[in-house]
Amino acid sequence: MKGPLFYSKILLFGEYGIIKDSKGLSIPYNFFKGALKTDGNESESAIRSNKNLRAFKGYLEKLAVEDPELVRFDINAMTSDISKGMYFDSSIPQGYGVGSSGALVAAIYDKYAHDKITVLENLTREKLLKLKRIFARMESFFHGKSSGLDPLNSYLSLPILINSQDNIESTSIPSQNTEGKGAVFLLDSGMTGETAPMVQIFMEKMKNEGFRSMLKDQFIKHTDACVEDFVNGNVKSLFGNLKQLSHVVLDHFKPMIPAKFHELWKRGIDTNEYYLKLCGSGGGGYILGFTEDFGKAQKALKDYNLEVVYNF
């Protein structure tokens, strides 16, 4: 038995900002994927995943009691499948900011939720918000606090435009220019990052009034402008705003950038060969890069593994 595939995601813009109502743009990334399986696999990772699913099932049982109006699951079927060794077989790296827990949440909802909202129906804003609420509660098992966006992206496999916390829509983005020199790419930092401690640092910083006004006047302003530019295909303007955004992140989100990348980050801004930004909560995992000339960026970042996500 093998369930449908659920893909990883990339939050192109909006990390941290969406907590405070900035715009955001999240796209599916089909390079990594996962599926629920019951095929007698007894590898260490399958056994570990099965144990995690058992704990997750306990959490979902409680959730259904606490909020029966929100979501209910076929717990008996889930219990039976888990006892048969069900696990989540995934190529999505954990702690890399590309939504490993989001894909698992989407797979469990798809398989076991009663009265589920499906991709095939007319996805009104109300339905999208309800899905996001359900997924936020489900995914908080893994992170302590979740926006629900990662599972939503994985479940729908569509780009999601976040206008504000209560205003989200599926959107289309300009088709890729496969001949283009410009690119969005992932840079592998070679280390994993943990979401919860990074969010904790952010929440501590939010107690400082100076940080709060920087977030509103600079970070959110440039994030919103980048989202608008990207969705509308304004590449020239996008790179101007990206440079500003990369600068603000380097100045004010240093703890979220692994120390050995501070210099590399600054070099991109100084040379305009590439601009780096956080991919997810930071602290490790992938770093997101944007360049108008991928060849130049590759040369400048030759010591690192780069993966192209989108071509301009």
From TrEMBL:
Domain GHMP kinase N-terminal: residue ranges: 86-150
Record has Nucleotidyltransferase as a keyword: no
Signal sequence residues: none
Alphabetical list of SUPFAM superfamilies matching this protein: GHMP Kinase, C-terminal domain (SSF55060), Ribosomal protein S5 domain 2-like (SSF54211)
Molecular functions (GO terms): ATP binding; kinase activity
Pfam family, any one: GHMP_kinases_N
Keywords assigned: ATP-binding, Kinase, Nucleotide-binding, Transferase
Xref: InterPro entries: GHMP_kinase_C_sf, GHMP_kinase_N_dom, Ribosomal_Su5_D2-typ_SF, Ribsml_uS5_D2-typ_fold_subgr
UniProt KW ATP-binding keyword: yes
Protein name: Mevalonate kinase
